[in-house]
């Protein structure tokens, strides 16, 4: 294995995943991962550019940043690349009016989007809102469309909260894909467009950037396919035995 | 297209799907499909053997048969091949203790099964019980196992109730498969073992039997792979445009 200095030669920017890297969510807002508050502070004092690149889709960026600041992180809303705002841009560009299957905590991100007479479905990490009734409604909306469009904010299999592993949006995306015989469009990691917009917002080229995350598919694989370097942390959802990543 | 007489030459037994062929479920127990009560009566007066081969997994066979008799069908519990009893046999044979993610209406079928300290998960068409909490619990049980076993009672994408199309167990099976990186074992149509047990119960060879159903994959494809003939009705979930059957 090459030495750290060599592996990180020429790096000008660092993209940090949030859940499982900075903190584990959960009861009472979750808990910071040991050493991460200091690590962010040191990165920000360095000459490196720093950006937070998350698939968090239960909370608006405002809520997420407020929570992280409360936990001690030096972070502001403008430093966060998250899937909900990216999805809103796509919806506007393509004239799509979504039926939203999302958590109430992220609904405010879609306040400016026309949701009347829906011609697509957007799903995010809806948590408890992934009821049978809500899933069935999303399914029925898709089945009524001539050209069903399903947009999924991320495709994660699961994430780690302080108490346990939790099912992520990817599982429900697969359920709707199968039921409707369609393929979802993923907004968020590992989509190349998403990484590219984060790089652009940071003003750094792919070969000058490193992504740090806990998801071997969403973070590491996705970043590498964009020409970035990537590091997988051994916190968050990291498990020593991988059960066949899809 | 060959004439009916020719296509059905040598047929000695008829396997009938129930949901979408005999009746559509729904509010107040559902409604018979026009002509089906009489068709069953005529079949039973003929020299053909008749068996009902269903993936119904929301209701016990007892409840299902009581409902169908109320709707006017000549049917008894001993004539029904259903996935829950087949799953119970498999669980016993393999010493599996399931965590059950099933509808309360079918739980009685598992009354004799040891569910302590689970070493597998069984999912059925749980309907409203497909809450996030229940799905997450099933996911967590699987992730704790060294050799996760997921048994799914059918793999249907959706079925038709009187009011609308409804998500079926297959969608949730896919969700758990993806989240855990595993492949489910399907008990029910289109599993060959399931059709074979129905044929055996009827005392008819595959080449002497015809399956009548509304599902192109579960009924028609499954039966044909077992060497049976099959007919797809244009009731139930049948749609003129198929959106890419998986």
What does this molecule look like?
Two copies of one chain form a homodimer. In chain A, helix 5 packs across helix 6 (169-180). In chain A, strand 7, helix 5 and strand 8 form a beta-alpha-beta unit. The radius of gyration of chain A is 18 Å and the shape is globular. Chain A starts with a helix and ends in a 14-residue tail after the last strand. Chain A has eight helices and 13 strands. Residues 241-246 of chain A have low confidence and may be disordered. In chain A, the strands form four sheets. A five-stranded parallel beta sheet of chain A has the order 5-4-1-12-13. A four-stranded parallel beta sheet of chain A has the order 6-7-8-11. In chain A, strands 2-3 form a two-stranded antiparallel sheet. By secondary structure, the first copy, chain A, is an alpha/beta fold. The first copy, chain A, has helices spanning 4-7, 36-45, 61-70, 83-94, 132-144, 169-180, 192-202, 216-225; strands spanning 13-16, 23-24, 31-32, 49-53, 80-81, 98-101, 120-123, 150-153, 158-160, 165-167, 185-187, 209-213, 229-232. The longest helix of chain A is centred in the middle third of the chain and has 13 residues, at 132-144.
Oligomeric nature of the chains: homodimer
Q: Name the largest protein-protein interface in this structure.
A: A-B, 38 and 38 residues
Q: Based on CA inertia axes, which overall geometry of chain A fits?
A: globular
Q: Unreliable runs of chain A, pLDDT <50, ≥5 residues?
A: 241-246
Concise synopsis of the structure shown:
By secondary structure, chain A is α/β, with parallel strands linked by helices.
């Amino acid at each position: 294995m090459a030495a750290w200095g060599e592996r990180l030669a020429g790096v000008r920017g660092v993209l940090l995943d949030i859940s499982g890297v900075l903190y584990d969510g959960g009861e009472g807002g979750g808990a910071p991962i040991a050493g991460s508050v200091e690590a962010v502070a040191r990165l920000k004092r360095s000459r490196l550019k720093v950006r937070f690149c998350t698939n968090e889709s239960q909370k608006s960026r405002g809520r997420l940043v407020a929570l992280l600041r409360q936990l001690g992180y030096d972070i502001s809303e403008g430093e966060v690349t998250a899937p909900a705002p990216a999805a809103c841009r796509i919806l506007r560009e393509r004239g799509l009016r979504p039926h939203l299957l999302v958590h109430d905590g992220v609904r405010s991100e879609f306040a400016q989007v026309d949701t009347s007479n829906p011609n697509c479905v957007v799903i995010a990490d809806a948590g408890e809102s992934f009821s049978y009734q809500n899933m069935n409604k999303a399914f029925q909306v898709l089945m009524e469309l001539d050209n069903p469009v399903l947009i999924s904010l991320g495709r994660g299999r699961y994430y780690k909260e302080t108490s346990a592993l939790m099912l992520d949006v990817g599982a429900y995306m697969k359920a709707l894909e199968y039921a409707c015989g369609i393929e979802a469009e993923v907004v968020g990691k590992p989509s190349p467009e998403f990484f590219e917009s984060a790089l652009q917002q940071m003003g750094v080229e792919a070969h000058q950037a490193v992504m740090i995350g806990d998801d071997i598919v969403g973070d590491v694989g996705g970043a590498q396919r964009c020409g970035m370097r990537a590091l997988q942390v051994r916190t968050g959802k990291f498990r020593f035995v991988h059960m066949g990543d899809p």
